[in-house]
Every structure is written in C-alpha cells, then in structure tokens.
Amino acid sequence: MQFWINRWGISLAMGISLSAGVLADGSVVDKVYHPYVEQLEWELEWRAVQAHNAPSSVEARQSTHRVGLGRAVSEFLFAEAYLIGREGSDSAFSVDAW
C-alpha cells in the first residue's frame, strides 16, 4: 500500500511539472473554459497576448487580440464567434481569422 501511494505521488508530481510549459498550436494557453451553461447567458470577451521576440528580430513586439461574443442557445449549448487580429511592431493591425 505504501509503495502504491508513493508511486502515485511521484507520477502526479511529474505530470504537474511536465505540463507547466506546454504550448497549444505554438501559443500560450491563456484561458480554460468551464463546461457549465446558464440559460439566457451572454458573454462579451476581449483578450490580448503580447509576445516579446529577440531585439534583433523584425517582429520585436507582436500582440494578438481576440474579441468574442457568445450566447447560450439552450441550457446545454453555448455558441461563440471570435475575431482574431494581430498588431505588429509597426502598429499596423490586421484581422487574421474570424
């Protein structure tokens, strides 16, 4: 029994330490959603992530902005739409995806 608890604890510690630096699609995971939907729920969301690259890089500073609007369609389904854009070091803004 003692061996099983120690083995479980070591596995848990390794899993937590390895997942600390995980990237998704080349970018940092900045929000984790909860699975609960409330009736008549609306959501307006704006998130910005700024990346600092090497100073010698052409894209030394780049920001990614996400604007989202969501609504509960039913008590089990929530629909969301996003606009995703980038702002480079030259302060030009472009919409990348929607």
TrEMBL record:
Superkingdom in the source lineage: Bacteria
Signal sequence annotation: 1-24
Keyword Signal: yes
Keyword field: Signal
Protein name, UniProt field: Transporter
Species annotation: Haliea salexigens
Lineage start: Bacteria, Pseudomonadati, Pseudomonadota, Gammaproteobacteria, Cellvibrionales
